[in-house]
Amino acid sequence: MLRKLLFALCLTLPLAGCEAGIFGNTLAGCAMQPEPTLLPEILPIAAVGRPYSVQLEVINTSTPVHGIYVNDAYALPEGLWVEHQDRDAYGLITGTPLKAGTYEVHMAAGTYGTQCAGRRASRVYKLEVTE
Question: Looking at the domain that runs over 37-130, which CATH code has it been given?
Answer without folding.
Answer: 2.60.40.10
